[in-house]
Amino acid sequence: MVEVALWGALSAATGGRKTVDVEAKDIRELFRKLAERYPGLEPYIERGIAVSIDGVIYRDTWSKELPKDAEIYLLPRISGG
Amino acid sequence: MGGIAVTTTINGDEVDFVCHAEETLLDVLRDRLGLTGAKEGCGTGDCGACSVIMDGRVVCSCLVLGAEAEGKKIGTVEGMASGDKLHPLQTKFLEHAALQCGVCTPGFLIAAKALLDRNPDPSEEEIRYGLAGNLCRCTGYDKIVRAVQDAAKVMKGA
Amino acid sequence: MTLGADFTGQKFKSVGTRPLRPDGVDKVTGRARYGADFNMPGQLVGRVLRSPHAHAKIKKIDTSRAEKLKGVKAVITAADLPDLTGGGDMFDILDNCMARKKAFYDGHAVAAVAAIDAPTAKKALKLIKVDYEVLPHVTDVDEAVKPGAPLLHKHMFTGGVEPKPKKPSNIANRCQYGHGDTEAGFKEADVIIERSYRTEQTHQGYIEPHACVASVSPDGTAEMWVCTQGHFVYRQQCAELLGIDVSKLRVTSSEIGGGFGGKTHIWAEPLALALSRKANRPVKLVMSREEVFRASGPTSATSVDVKLGAKKDGTITAAEATLRYSNGPYAGMWAELGAMTSFACYDLTNVKTVGYEVLVNRPKVAAYRAPSAPMAAFAIESAMDELAQQIGMDPVKFRIKNAAKEGTKSSYGPVYGPIGIGPTLEASLKHPHMKAKLGKNQGRGMACGFWFNFGGQTCTDLNIGVDGTVALAVGTVDVGGSRASLSLVCAEELGIPYEQVKAVVADTSTLGHNDMTDGSRGTFSSSMATIFAARNAIKVLRERAAQMWDISVDDVVWEDGQAKAKGQKHGNLAPLSLKEIAAAAPNTGGPIAGHSEIVADGAGVSFATHICDVEVDPETGATRVVRYTVVQDAGKAVHPSYVEGQYQGGAAQGIGWALNEEYIYGKDGRLQNPGFLDYRIPVCSDLPMIDTQILEIPNPKHPYGVRGVGETSIVPPLAAIANAVSNAVGVRMTHIPMSPPRILAALEKKKAH
Question: Which of C412, C451, C516, C713 is best to mutate for the A interface (most A CBs within 10 A)?
Fold first, then answer.
């Protein structure tokens, strides 16, 4: 079970919840379960969400495991210049 | 057909070409003569990426008509090395990492060569003002100035 | 992800040295080929017709006379680019490449031609008749949000607002970040600063205009030569817009003459492909400098309100920022990035940032080196300086007191791991620059900056030639010398001299997908992939050596560029060099190679502190930068000269942005200064030498500790210079650029009081 913090726009899609608890072992499973529970999150997941795990940002790695007790934060997928 | 026949000297070689009246020397060098070292960064003489030497002076080739090259001596970056020996400016630009993307480099080399030919012992301020007609967006000019200073030392010593 | 990506702490032989770059000689002799230096036989010249109106309905386009002109081989409008996108961002890209129903800015493409030469193409453009219904326009970021402002999209209702607004507006989205209770925090404060700031729109200003040569065949295959920061992404997007199979479009990246984010988006490339498809001939399309300014992405113009509160002892109790960023005609996430980065350098209990994406009749905003961060940093760091002054605390010490550290909850959400803001601040405090004496009319300023860095999809191929030299094919476009850095990394891993490695940038058909060179990821990601590719090659080399010696591969180690047989019983076996193993390759199993396809995630964040001294002439308002220092953490500088180059280049762009560069629009909504004469970037005589101090606090997520370095250095300059100028003239400057007229106006205002 991991606790996931959501940024503003995602929070709106979960009815205002700032954190959600999800049973997931990696990023892929996390996205799948979130989309199932909150269909409003699907468009954001499709466009791309970055996952911060203990402060390190992962943009593409679905297989990245979510360590227990890690701080997990969902952020918009950012690009650089 | 319509066109102007021009005979000129480029990097020491006699060259003949035909161009339209409105074609610039830059167009001719790049599109007719395959000398793509000079670049078009702006087309209005503001960036210096098209710099070439014409009868001993640095000019923006985008502001010179192809026809004006008649009877002149043109020097481009392709003519700076002597055979396989790079010009000291070219060597120093490499050693000092005075280029990042490199697109402004041919223009800078030409302008720097003209500067050192005119003033072999320039101060930092003279170098900076001498190169103020060439825009670089990558380097902040620091390493370019250092490269020119070092090349000047070498050229004086040689 | 990538096992073994963690920092190894090893001592380096090649990494950290300063050899000449492999593409260098070509670049100093004029041999290197950039976007416009390439030609295909039979190619046509492409030219684009652009709207002269800031906002207009396109009622009709009549191309018949242009099509009939002798020498014209194809004319296209939006009708030749059917919408295959399904909406969203790709539709916006399509519409920006060529206007479909409305022209949204002065310079918006409406048609294009391909002809046998430039004069014919030019004539053809004049023969295209466009019926416009001119609409009222709005180009200013603050004007666009006022009630009654002309609307760009009739059905734009601000997203991120509950309940959903009933009336449409030019605000595409609202976002919010932060934590704690800023209202309570302000009540605790002894000193409060409240100010509004504005920054004008600037352009990346790369010296090389966009250029490509496109060739589409009737069988659906195509190739394109183009200057780009990401040929794989260009391939994907162009293929999608044109309905070409991705693997049938071969994109080769030319040498690139600067990008800074502006060449991470497609502009005229789909038009070149569409023209080529219609004409069945290659088409060369090069943008003029004017077109680059009018129709390729500048950065946002911004309007930011900041409120800060602190106790007398210097502890910040609350921080708020409201950021309005112009996006151009289509919604992006520019204000959101500003909202995320605003307070990223600080450890705050109560922080709140709100961002608004504002649509205006200006070109579509594109990424520019640490997008959105410099403007937010300008506002916040200016306010921080004022707050420190009011409290009576040294500006650097004030920041050190409130700086984020490992364990800080960032203002954009996640908790930080080990980070470098403290070290860069401490280093600047100790730097000799701080002790230099200031002269008359001079002022000193400092500021910090933050940027995310990225990893992303990366592939590398390492092929060992029969003579033992190594061909390294990478997929990240080399914008500033990365081929040298990657060759150093390859040489380091294999234990061979740098000169034995030749790095090239492969095209889209010869290497797997690579994300763009943006997000400061070029050296970080490709070096990681290169290390893994080399380690894979070493596995093969050891196997071959084992074969040649007829021993177990477990008894073979790779050291100093050689295979060595370890263990007593193999004591008499002389080591085998890379050359010897390579020479025997045909007999031991064929060509030897190492590949790596990874997602190089875990790039970490990056901080910098800048110090700047300026001299302001009170009569003319002209500012001279007297001294400039950049302190930034690189993790590990693979090739220190090119790391210094990134620091200096970012600082120079920031200096131009702070003092001179701005897009000037007339009342007619047209860009008044689309050229390098009046859009004045710094020249050699404007700048002093730029001192750099590279800190090396290893990034635990990279085998050599490398961090991205390319972008962070453009984040602090706007604020550092604004603080310096404000100190020099004794007036707080709140409007960037601080060009002479603005400084004179500020001085006048001060005199009047």
Answer: C412
Cα–Cα distance between B100 and A72 in angstroms, integer? Answer: 38
3-state secondary structure of B18: strand
Closest Cα in chain B, distance from residue C134 (Å): 30
**pTM of this prediction?**
0.95
Domains of chain B: 4-79 (3.10.20.30), 88-157 (1.10.150.120)
User: Mean pLDDT of residues grouped by 10 in chain C (753 residues)?
Assistant: 69 94 96 97 98 98 98 98 93 97 98 97 98 98 96 93 92 94 97 98 98 97 96 95 95 96 96 98 98 96 98 98 98 95 96 97 96 98 97 96 93 84 94 96 96 86 95 92 93 96 92 87 90 96 95 94 89 92 95 92 85 97 98 94 96 98 97 97 98 92 89 96 97 97 94 85
C297: contact with A, CB 8 A cutoff: no
Touch criterion met for A and C (3+ Cβ pairs within 8 Å): yes
β-strands C44-50, C283-286 pairing = parallel
Distance CA(C484)–CA(C18), nearest Å, equals: 9
Q: Is residue C473 a contact partner of residue C487, using CB atoms and an 8 Å limit?
A: no
Tokens of C715: 């984040």
**ipTM, interface predicted TM-score of the complex:** 0.97
Chain A residues whose C-beta sits inside 8 Å of any chain C C-beta: 5, 7-9, 12, 47, 52, 54-61, 63-64, 71, 73, 75-76, 78-81
Q: Which CATH class is domain A2-76?
A: alpha beta
Cβ under 8 Å to A: C residues 451-470? 451-457
Q: Which residues of B touch C649 (CB under 8 A)?
A: 100, 137-140
Please return the burial class of B149, using the count of CB atoms within 10 Å of its CB with bins 0-12, 13-18 and 19+: middle
Assign a CATH topology to domain C302-453+604-752: Aldehyde Oxidoreductase; domain 4 (3.30.365)
Contact C30 B36 (CB under 8 A): yes
Per CATH, which fold does C35-135+209-256+263-295 belong to?
Aldehyde Oxidoreductase; domain 3 (3.90.1170)
In chain C, where does the domain assigned CATH 3.90.1170.50 lie? 35-135+209-256+263-295
